Amino acid sequence: MIRLPGVHGLLGVHKGVAALLAALVFGAALVVSALPRMVESSLDAAARSAVGSAPPGTTSLAVQFTRRPFDPRGMRTTKQVAKADTAWRALLPTALREVADPGRLYDFATSSPILIDDRAHRYMTLKWVSGAGRHVRYVKGGPPGRGSGTRVEVAVPAVAATEMSIRTGDTLRLGDLTVKVTGLFEPVRPADRFWALEPELTYVIHHRVPLAMDDDLIVTALADGDSLAGAELPILFRWLVTPAQERIGAGNAAAVLADTAEFGRRLGRQDLEVTLSTGLDRILAEYLQRLALTRALITVFLSGLAVVCLGTTALAVLLFAGRVRGDLLLMRARGASLARTMLTCGGAVALVAVPAAAAGQAAAGFVPGAPTAVARLGPAALAAGTIAIACAAALVRSGGRRSGNALRRIVLELLVLALAVASVHLLRTRGLGTGGLGTGGLGTGGLGTGDAFLAPGPVLLALAAALVVLRAGPALIHLVFRAAARRSGAVPFLGLAAARAVPSAALPVLTLLPAVALAAYGMVTAGGLEEAQRQAAWERTGAEIRVERAEGIAPETLEQIAHAPGVRAVVPAAVGTTVAEVGFGGRPATVVAVDLGAYHRLVAGSPLRLPPPGSGALVSRDLSAAGSFDVGWPARTTVTPAGTVDAMPGVAAGDGALIVLPGAPAQVNTLLIAGDPEAVRPLLPSGANMTTVAGALAEITGAPLTAALTAALRVAAAALAAYALAAVAIALTGGAARRAEDLGLLRALGLTRRQAGLVTVLEAAPLLVLTAVAGLAAGLAMPALIGIDLSAYAGGRQGALSGGALLPALPGVVAGALAAGVAAVALAGAYWGGRRGHAG
């Protein structure tokens, strides 16, 4: 009696294929589960970094009310101000209330500085701050007491007393007020957040109006709260709600942003005319845009990984199904139903795929980060897809229903092409990650509705290229075959004739081309990001080392640094602000005085692009129409424009004009240095600030979202490259038995082992090599085709890796090496397979 093969029997006979399938499923489950966890682990850190790196005064929500003199409404005592703070906090929406720091801070001050004793350029702002007594230490005198009528007592910052010529016991005249100075104070702990929210209490404000020759000096003094509130002055009241950095994460950032707008609407419905001022909404909006782009980019590569992993696994399943085809036909011949043959083959694959997927998911658990929907469901979906492919293959191999007709295939291919074109067009016009700011993780609403369609755009583009290769490849091979047919050699004719009839080429092409394309795209994107980040670091610094000191740098210090061991060159410069005396009221401008010729020599070989050296001044385009104009810094000078300049490295002109004066300045406040930072650091004078390219680069690349994206791109590219090589190996192995039979016939006609290897190369390699080359071309073209701007990850460099950005050389070479490696594996595998087939 002939026993029908069972599930364990199939696996026992074909252990090698089963082990290969298990390895593929394990690797795919590991990557698909670990990659989202790795990215998600950095998202909360990025949110905390975005909020924590901004000044507390920017992220706080400031409720403000300006009271005019003789205003009949309240706010005449500090108790009324405290009661209003409670009222405003009661209006906080839920998400905003949950992240608000419970510590309360509110203050009020004169809405504008008041001239002191009618002396020009000396002003005082009177202010009261809740809890100020806990944060100040009186170095002389004591706190201000209760005044009466138009008499007010104040305490002045100790650092301002000397500069403003104010002493304890002085009586000052501020308009209709008589102000007595009772004490001088300093911060108890300068690092406390209180002083970041009330910085004007720690220094004298210098302010210069346009065309003025001298600065206005403004000191902020602490006054008794009830006395100040009761004075008939314009008073600005401010209540601060400060978000706790550690309470904001990727999960609630969108809700906090929405509640910030809702809080403003609720305040607008109050009887008192208050306004909400904050930078938290802008910070969170920028973070959420980067968050959505990060998630969308990871979704691109997860989609590609899913396609490639499933395709490679399908190749392995088909290889297994081909090996067990005889067993399945025997089962059918002995009366087994199609359902039983499908269950037998599917069960055998399930015994391999399910434990491998579970093991991959378990191994991914060691990767830090919260599990997302993709991490939880991806391995299970992969195992289910593998089993489904096995059942379908068993149905076909055991004599069941055949695949769909040609018309259905053509319609499907046209649909893929249409979707690819539409997604690329939308990506170029509206970008990726801008459609929705969901709050979920990868695959759980983190993308907007439009992004769910746009994210797989590169995958669709790669599949469309694969379909083109499937349709155009045979035609190209046929042209080469016709040329070979006219030659006398038999080996090219036999090999190319076999290549024209290679069966089942669709799945290897549809797997290999997206793998190579997306791996090349990932390599180019990651490498291009590195180059853009390096460029941004140089543009921020302007030289290997940049030393700045507002008070100026003495000539002897310059000489010491220039002759220090480890310092190759130093270029002195002066950078400051002034007013270009053009038009009515002048134009604010940033002036850079530097020897451009020496500067060019200093940064030779760096990625910096400097304006060409010349004999005249360079100005921004908004000043280029002026024949000449005067500036008051660094000395009274008449500037005659000799050219235009758009920007200077390390100089932030903002909305003002830019002026570059030729030649070394007489008064130096900036040094541009090439050399070792450790050789410069000990020679710096007090108050000097040193920045380096290495430090700026570390700041850019150390951002959590940037580091996560770069790492994810490299992991995805490596996984795609590995599966590309596996797909080639499986595709060659799948046809080995058929090739051995063909070579056996040719061997009887005198075919040598070397000729057998060449015949096999010419049979198997053309389509695989064409696929690898097409995949490389598609991957290198993707940055320009889809035009995603990654400037947010490159220090804010606009256009980084967008459609107009140049293809980075080194990553392009690495991607080319990947395609060449795939082609080399295909050629070598086919050659040695042919020799072995001949020997068999």
UniProtKB/TrEMBL annotation:
Its name, as the record gives it, is ABC3 transporter permease C-terminal domain-containing protein
Superkingdom of source: Bacteria
Q: Where in the cell is it found?
A: Cell membrane
- What organism does this protein naturally occur in? Microbispora hainanensis
Coiled-coil stretches noted in the UniProt entry, renumbered to this chain: none
Q: Where are the transmembrane segments?
A: 296-321, 342-367, 379-398, 410-427, 459-481, 502-524, 715-737, 758-786, 806-832
Keywords for the protein's UniProt record, in alphabetical order: Cell membrane, Membrane, Transmembrane, Transmembrane helix
Query: What is the membrane topology listed in the Swiss-Prot or TrEMBL record?
Result: Multi-pass membrane protein
What are the residue boundaries of the ABC3 transporter permease C-terminal domain, all occurrences included? 716-827
Looking up Pfam families in the UniProt record yields:
FtsX
Major site of localization recorded for this protein: membrane
